[in-house]
Amino acid sequence: xxFVLDKEFSECYFDYSEWKFQAEKEEGRGMGRALFTAEELAxxxxxxxxxxxxxxxxxxxxxxxxxxxxxxxxxxxxxxxxALAEKQRAYRAANKEALAEYQRAYRAANKEALAEKQRAYRAANREALAEYQRAYRAANKEALAEKQRAYYAANKEALAEKQRAYRAANKEALAEKQRAYRAANKEALAEYQRAYRAANKEALAEYQRAYRAANKEALAEKQRAYYAANKEALAEKQRAYRAANKExxxxxxxxxxS
Length: 258
Description:
There is one protein chain. By secondary structure, the chain is mainly alpha-helical. Among the domains are: 2-81, no CATH class; 95-139, no CATH class. 84% of the residues lie in helices and 4% in strands. It is built from 14 helices and 2 strands. It has helices at 17-28, 38-53, 59-94, 96-109, 111-124, 126-139, 141-154, 156-169, 171-184, 186-199, 201-214, 216-229, 231-244, 246-257, and strands at 2-6, 11-15. β1 and β2 (11-15) form a beta hairpin. The longest helix is centred in the first third of the chain and has 36 residues, at 59-94. The protein is rod-shaped. The chain starts with a strand and ends with a helix. Mean pLDDT is 84; it is low at 1-14, 19-23 and 28-32.
């Protein structure tokens, strides 16, 4: 008997022709009973004839059948996946509060470990994350700006209150930070102011005129209050100025008289 494998169609069968030949050969030599009797050989031959009578399939039909089988398996797998996803969604919806509480407890218990994991991930992927953020902002520039405007408009009072509270709590630190910044960037800031004033000279003058006209009484009252509160200091300042510039004024008067 010979075992035959057809690789093209992934089929296998037994070839009984050698057994039959061997049985006849041994029987003819008087070597005892044959491997198969005549009835068994007839039965095997009938089975082979039945197999041979079945229609043959060409390669395209076999490939199509295999494709149908694969699609059927994938469809069953997809249905199982969909059922599992639906089951998960239902479970999450039914246990929303419990799952949220579990997450909060887990984060609280593993706060340091999670923070360290995030720091390590950001350090290892710093450039990739920065590039992703730049690409995302560039692609969603208008949508992000609109989202910010809507958020500020909806939370204007809360944000203003938050800023006031922050400034009050960090007044000294913020003032020190500003002083340090101005000291370190004194020349650059002065140059920026000069350039800004030169470029916006007319607009600034117009703004000042409009402001003074609209706040004339308030500004006058402010000046009167300042003079009253600093009367002695201002008088002393004037006396010191006149004493320091006395000779200069006399020279000016002589020049005017001549």
